[in-house]
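Q: My labmate handed me this sequence with no annotations at all. I'd like to see what the chain might look like in three dimensions before we decide whether it's worth expressing. Could you predict it?
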Amino acid sequence: MSPSPARLLVAGVGNIFLADDAFGPEVIRALGRRPLPPGVRVKDFGIRGLDLAYELLDGYRTAVLIDAAPRGHRPGTLSLIEPDLPGATAAAPPPEAHGMDPARVLALAAHLGDGPLPRVLLLACEPRVGPTGDEDVVPGLSEPVREAVDRAVTALHTLVPALLADPSATPPLGRPEESAGPCPAGLPHGTAGGTQDR
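A: Here is what I predict for the chain of 198 residues:
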């Protein structure tokens, strides 16, 4: 008897060579020591936006993306964001060869699919160190973002069972500092909608 298909995707995104942008992949690595329950597919997509777009079309009810996202908070702050999902007629710019833009990935997935996308939540971490533009490699997470990795794993162990039980639930991230309606097209950068922070 084959195992039942995963109902929930937990996807780490980010460039491991660009400082705090490696937050998503580091959380996925930490989940290897504290696995999530059955029914969840956990995968590090790195900067492979096309792979993630196709994965979102694989029948999941919910997807949780993990990424670094500057939102103007103290470095290491975790935010839970629910973006507005683009429709199938949305423009679908090709994903960047060496970058992962969640809005582009969602637009591409909506364009490629023949049905609605799964519900998407973004577990974001406020970065402290990012690429400066003139460096090819900036290794390692900053201290506050490194400390946020374990908090993100703990948050996922609360969020994921609640989402498996009820995909429409929005479990609190803990000590919410703000919450509001969804933000447009999956753009966490500088938007304040659809979020809970801690």
